[in-house]
Fold these 4 entries.
Entry 1:
Amino acid sequence: MSPSLVFLFLLLLSPLQPSAASSSSSSPVDVLPVAGQSAYDILAGFNFPAGLLPQGATGYELDPSTGRFRAYFNGTCSFSLEGSYQLKYKSVIGGYISENRLTQLTGVSVKILFLWLNIVEVVRSGDDIDFSVGIASASFGIDNFFVCPRCGCGLDCGGEGGASKPARRPFVSSI
């Protein structure tokens, strides 16, 4: 049985996960952005590459006491990577950021087979970045995220090259 079918089977059998959004998600972030820093700089400060976010982040908020983080875009953004993964970013993405870890992520989803699944956690483990959709995860080499993808075309934007296709290990069960 293919890994994709196994993943889909496990997904359908798993209990529904509660929403990562909680009542605290509606409270405003108390700390405003630091002048001269971008959302990409904040990612770097927590040991993440800038390419986790597509180009075009217009701002961010960070509460250093809780790690609550939000990044803003002018609109939704979608693109394909490697022809097999479609990613979609909402105009506001958020979660909690700490060294090597983004948790309770909201606003980012990936299409697997015919289902859109929310990416709920991103973890850097050495030279790998692991993405979790709850019961399954995929791991990619960090060097795939040095370049920020562009809305609409991802890393394959016709002649602007330089970015290689991500080397990946497909979504696999985390059980």
Entry 2:
Amino acid sequence: MTHTILHIDASARTEDSVTRDLSARLVAQNPEAKVIIRDLAAAPLPQITEDWVNANFTPVDARTEVQKATLELSNNLVDELQAADTLIIGLPIYNFGVPAAMKAWIDLIARAGLTFRYTENGPKGLLEGKRAIVAVASGGTKTGSEIDFATPYIRHVLGFVGITDVAIVAADQMSVDAEASLARVEAEIEALADAA
């Protein structure tokens, strides 16, 4: 059975992007895999709107043609996510959090009944059994520090939809010591390759 990777890049930079380089290298470790590419800079996603929210909360069998069309992109993004065995995400830290492009993707895939459901014990993710590797880069923010709101958030969101096997590969504090950061991340990528 073919292994499927959903490769998401969230960096606004299409050239000289550390996260794009790292995510591409992680994908390349799986040359036999089928790869679905979702480049959030090349094809920006819209913000959700009142029309989108109303369509999303309308029962499937009661949706108008306009509402179905409104949800089509979101449905496609969910299909990509459901088809993937592994997510590889290139995620820069912008102003201590995730880029707006990544937040737009999250808003469009967090769908009750599709990627999670509410139970009497609270929400339950519906995308269990998948793995995520998140390649993070930052200028000054140290991952895991009190000013890093990006990696805890992406872990939480992925866990919310059922993806709890999440590895963070961090080229953090690039403005402080890029050489040391890249050397550290080289070792992390090598370890991931050995574990695959």
Entry 3:
Amino acid sequence: MKNKIVKNIEISKAARNKLLSFLSDLTTDELNHIPTGFNNNLAWQMGHLVVSQQLLCYRLSGNELIIEKELIDLYKNGSKPERYITAEEIEQMKGYLLSTIDQLAIDLAQNKFDNYTPYTISTFPGLTLANIDDAIAFIACHDGLHYGCCLGLKKLVKMQG
């Protein structure tokens, strides 16, 4: 693997570890709370990071997803929590935050992403991911973006709770 790809994976893993630590003191109810003016919650944010990485890296390369297909519609871009996310589901997402990044590094070393279908990011008009290197760079940025969202969401959860 190239050094830049390895660094982007390290950045994603660091951001996800920081997110897990940052959210560790919250209850299941707090993770499910949707603050006034928002359309999602902290539990959804975790699931969204997992699903986005799976779609942008695995699906666009024609690989099988590591996660259950049912999770896609629950956490894909444009979705929002339609029901209470259980403690078990939250624990599953917490595990996936790290295990999917670890598996990505393994699969990269095995060249599983050579058949990448270019994809234009809907939320960043004009930005096209041409290959797995682009996807991994975007995932690192996306993880940081959502970590920032979680900082604000947690403050509001604590204020409104």
Entry 4:
Amino acid sequence: MYQLKATQILPISKKEAWEFLSNPKNLKTITPRHMGFHILDGADGKMFPGQIIQYKVKPFPFANFRWVTEITHVVDNDYFVDEQRFGPYVLWHHKHFLKETLNGTVMEDIVDYKLPFGFFGRLAHFIWIEKQLKHIFRYREEKLTQLFGNVKDTKNSISTKRI
């Protein structure tokens, strides 16, 4: 299993951050175009526990995946959790936290994930998947900075580790 942590400070209120980040329709805006991300179903209305969202994603030039996630936990304006129900990972558990500070809102993501195929999955992680995930989160960071600006003299971070 692996864990990815990403932290970014946005110069907006926690409420503004929540309104944008908890709306599944905004995922396309913060996902790289080459991923071919498209929501198929389930993104209408306010986010709620038990919500099922279906996507199409193209992580490789030669492969399309249908990805189904469930929103398992929601505490308005604080955090939500999405878990893969069907898709490319054996496990995908993604926690999204928001914390208000004097400089704006700290957005922290913690993703615990496991790949299929044992040794070959670990090799794929080393060669490509870890880099791809970091690229996706860096892209998201850039898009959120374009949309909302950034906080001067802050360090955003993205890291992964095996757990």
